[in-house]
Amino acid sequence: MVFLRCHRSKYIWATLGVLAFLWLYIFPVYRIPSDKEMVDEVLRQGQIWTRNQTGVDLYRKLLTECCDPKRMFAVTKENSPIGKVLWYDGEIYHYHTVNNETYPFFVQDTPLQLPLKKCSVVGNGGVLKHSGCGKEIDQADFIMRCNLPPLSKEYTTDVGTRTHLVSANPSIIEKNFQNLLWSRKSFVESMKAFGSSYIYIPAFSMKPGTDPSLRAYHTLADSASSQTVLFANPDFLKNVGRFWKNHGVHGKRLSTGLFLVSLALGLCEEVTTYGFWPFSVGLDERPVSHHYYDNILPSSRFHTMPEEFLQLWHLHKSGTLRMRVGDCAKEGQEPKREK
Question: Is the model more confident about 301 or about 329?
Fold first, then answer.
């Protein structure tokens, strides 16, 4: 009886050990730096930055091997012929089979003139307010923006005016334009702010987002828009998500910003990011709103923004990309704390 009890006890402890190991693998125990610690870290780094071509080449190679952004970032007739099964990257059991109805919506092949040279990837963080970064952003050869942000006159000094590619998540179409089920005029008018850009829509990430995404395509086509809709390839999104999970980002889903930065690292010779700052205080230790245009917080169920920032900050320190988190109007000046 004692032997059986000891054997059972060892079995239980072994089982608990395995479960604990699995838990730590899925939800690793580590501490994200506090807002103040990150402010101190950025201030120590200062404005000095040197591009590291070896780091640039390495990440382009890694992203090419895992995700092939040049060929796979968008769904095209070349990579998704009729009969191709597109498995939704945000859901396990749903898929879309390319058919005669959806195939004509896809561009023939990657439409970008590669390689792209100097790229700006513009997030929507409140750190952009009063940054004066608009002129610097607009000087890039190719500018990517996230989730149809407002570009009205009151913001352009800080965020610029030019756009070459802007993402449009179906959740934005649902929230701001009622899934385009009723009037579509406001959607067409708001899209004019992005000029003749590419509209990058993850239509095949979550099944509920497919119909609103296709309606967005039809709305722009019917209005004779000069914009081109590109549907994000779910295979690309899935592989990019796996890539960053292997590098320490454990959120349920990457933010749109990190997807676009990944795309830029794979396609651009030089990448600078703006508006990526998920902390509640800025370099002057004053409060920072979540977005430059509002202070509505995102759902914490999907993204781990501080983890994403730490990965990008590592790339900044290594010279692989440049992060702008301070005041562009005071180029060359070290950020100082307010007394």
Answer: 329
For 53-78, how does the pLDDT look when each residue is reduced to its tens digit (9 = 90+)? 999 999 999 999 999 999 999 999 99
What's the predicted TM-score (pTM) here?
A: 0.86
Q: How many CB atoms lie within 10 A of CB 254?
A: 23
Residues 6+ apart with CB under 8 A from 178: none
Q: Are 277 and 327 in contact (CB under 8 A)?
A: no
Contacts of 189 by beta carbon, 8 Å cutoff, 6+ apart: none
| Cα three-residue angle 113-115-119, rounded to 5 degrees | 95
CA distance 56 to 59: 6
Alpha-carbon Rg for the chain in angstroms: 22
C-alpha 111: how far from chain center: 20
How confident is the model over 226-256, as pLDDT tens digits? 999 999 999 999 999 999 999 988 878 899 9
CB distance 131 to 162 below 8 Å: no
Sole residue written with tokens 């952004």? 69
Distance CA 170, CA 164 (A): 19
Q: Tell me which DSSP letter residue 232 carries.
A: B
Question: In this model, does residue 267 exceed pLDDT 80?
Answer: yes
CB neighbour class for 13 (10 Å; exposed up to 12, middle 13-18, buried from 19): exposed
Which of 3.30.70.100, 3.40.50.800, 3.30.43.10, 3.90.1480.20 is the CATH number of 36-74+117-330? 3.90.1480.20
Residue 53 CB burial class (10 angstroms; 0-12, 13-18, ≥19): exposed
At 217, which amino acid appears? Y
Task: Determine phi and psi for 125, rounding to 5 degrees.
Answer: -65, 150
- Alpha-carbon dihedral sign for residues 187, 199, 242, 265: negative
Domain ranges of the chain: 36-74+117-330
In DSSP terms, which residues pair with 272 in a beta bridge? 120, 322
Summary mean pLDDT of the chain: 87
Q: Which two tokens stand for residue 280?
A: 């509640």
